[in-house]
Specification:
The chain is of the alpha/beta class. It has 18 helices and 21 strands. Helices cover 34% and strands 16% of the residues. α7 packs antiparallel against α8.
Length: 543
């Protein structure tokens, strides 16, 4: 059975790769697109890192793995919590490999913290709280990495750089890429592996902040040629990194190159709660909340929520107030300025709308008897949403959650989901003190996530040609087929037969058993780790 190497290019999109390949800047990826299997890889709903990589790992929709966004509702519906491997439900591809003795090297995978204990090696990636936490398995590997390569760079917080600091951001990104290349090559040569997964986050970080300077949409901004050339040189570096990993794996290894979502230009940030307020569904109280007035200044001094909670509790402050500090509840706790007594609908995650339902929400006012009629009313009104500056519709389709998701965690999904929209618009919820309008300029960001990612493949079990209709959740069962692993019965994805050779398709599939489908158990996170994850999300422009 040939080995399998999967290289994730976070946010990679054909609009960029094809442009640069035509110019000869991506010799390896260009050849792979021309001579291997290739096709668009449809992302998750919404097309974001949290649900995307989670569906890649499990082959299931968010209703089964529970990671609906980079944050999700807490199980008591009172707040939000950052997602990670600890919140992921279901059986992952690593669990299946582990049970069958397949030696795995899992490097820089987002949503892999806390690191699973595998027969192999793990170096956690994006959404790891900090390098002071245990971000490797075995735990001793972190010290070895730092001894050989210096302080390890987990990620680049692109949103923390101002426009005038773009050159410095690119230098820092390049330094991170160089170090991670060395680490990944070293780990992969350190001990034998059968299944290697390496994720490069550079495409996402570049495209969020520097989409305008890639050249996909035509002319680059004035006086931007030097920046343009630096951006192109980083894509050449990405191509070289992929080529080196493929060379290390060898021609006798099956190779997949995938992305968790695509990318597009960002035209506007849409504050969904402001939009719902204009429609009469969301009502805000006047003034600013506690966290705006007191919490943020103290946060800048290094005092985090768990410190504030420890200070507040002995003084007999209300239980809900203290709990909101400890839980990180940004909308429903003390820092909120939402009038829940009059709010019928609100946004908490990307593209999603929740109803303030009685019996579910802490301050619910919508009776169950009005649930369906209110959802129908919201669908009709949201689908008429237009950008006031252009008069053009930006939301084309809104669906009920059960039309998009299925599984044991359906009740935690938003009641409505925007599933077809102008992908140049980012539909999210923002602190009320952040935006006053529904449609807002993009700020320092110039690129936005889109549904269409990439799938490329080559190897002894890969059939060249175009692949159509592939979804991100289909990669997991396809990897199972290539590794001769049984596929759990609850997997939503399907094997991508069109990209596999007759030899693989005719071979008898591995038979399932309960042991191989058992998920490894991740521990719960401490409050400090949760806050570290929130800092990561803030640095990536999501909070």
């Amino acid at each position: 059975m040939p080995r399998l190497m999967v290289i994730g290019l976070d946010g990679a999109t054909f609009s960029v790769l094809e442009l640069l390949a035509r110019d000869g800047r991506l010799p390896f990826l260009g050849t792979l697109m021309a001579e291997g299997a290739h096709g668009i890889l449809r992302s998750s709903d919404p097309p974001y890192t949290g649900p995307g990589w989670s569906s890649f790992m499990t082959g299931t929709n968010p209703g089964k793995h529970s990671n609906y966004d980079l944050e999700r509702r807490t199980m008591d519906f009172k707040g939000l919590e950052p997602v990670g491997y600890h919140t992921l439900s279901g059986t992952t591809i690593w669990d299946l490999a582990n049970a069958k003795g397949v030696r795995t090297a899992l490097l820089n995978m987002p949503i892999s913290y806390p690191p699973p204990e595998l027969k192999g090696t793990v170096v956690c990636g994006a959404l790891t709280p900090s390098k002071t936490t245990r971000f490797t398995f075995p735990a001793s590997l972190a010290a070895e990495i730092e001894e050989r390569f210096g302080p390890y760079r987990l990620d680049l917080s692109w949103a923390e750089y101002q426009p005038a600091e773009r050159d410095r951001m690119l230098s820092d990104l390049e330094a991170m890429m160089d170090q991670q290349d060395e680490v990944f090559q070293w780990v992969l040569q350190r001990e034998p592996w059968d299944f290697g997964v390496v994720v490069l986050v550079a495409p996402d970080r570049i495209q969020h902040s520097l989409w305008k300077w890639i050249g996909v949409d035509g002319a680059i901004p004035d006086e931007g040629e030097q920046l343009h050339q630096r951006v192109l040189s980083l894509y050449e570096k990405i191509d070289h990194s992929v080529a080196c990993l493929a060379s290390l794996a060898g021609d006798d290894t099956n190779l997949l190159v995938v992305s968790d979502h695509g990318f597009n230009a960002l035209h506007s940030r849409v504050d969904m709660n402001n939009l719902l307020a204009e429609m009469g569904y969301f009502v805000a109280r006047g003034g600013r909340g506690f966290f705006d007035i007191v919490g943020r200044p103290l946060h800048r001094l290094g005092l985090k929520r768990h410190h504030l909670a420890k200070i507040a509790r002995p003084f007999g402050l209300k239980r809900g107030f203290v709990d909101s500090l400890e839980s990180g509840n940004r909308l429903q706790g003390a820092g909120s300025i939402t009038d829940w007594s009059r709010t019928r609908a609100f946004c908490l995650i990307t593209n999603g709308v929740f109803l303030n339902l009685q019996g579910r929400e802490p301050y619910g006012i919508v009776p169950a008897s009005d649930y369906e009629s209110l959802r129908s009313e919201l669908i009709e009104r949201l689908q008429k949403t237009c950008d006031p500056a252009t008069g053009q519709r930006v939301i084309f389709r809104v669906q009920r959650r059960e039309e998009v998701y299925s599984g044991p965690f359906l009740e935690y999904a938003p009641d409505l989901l925007i599933t077809e929209f102008d992908e140049r618009y980012h539909f999210y919820f923002f602190p009320k003190s952040h935006y006053q309008d529904s449609f807002n300029p993009p700020g320092i960001a110039t690129g936005n996530h889109a549904y269409d990612g990439i799938l490329l493949a080559r190897g002894p079990d890969i059939r060249a040609g175009e692949i159509s209709g592939a979804r991100l959740m289909d990669v997991m069962p396809t990897m199972c087929r290539l590794l001769d692993l049984s596929i759990p019965p609850d997997v939503d994805g399907v094997i991508l037969d069109a990209m596999l050779t007759e030899r693989i398709l005719k071979a008898a599939p591995a038979q399932p058993d309960s042991e191989s489908h058992a998920k490894s158990v991740a521990r719960e996170l401490s409050q400090e780790e949760r806050e570290g994850l929130e800092e990561r999300l803030r640095g990536l422009g999501y909070l």
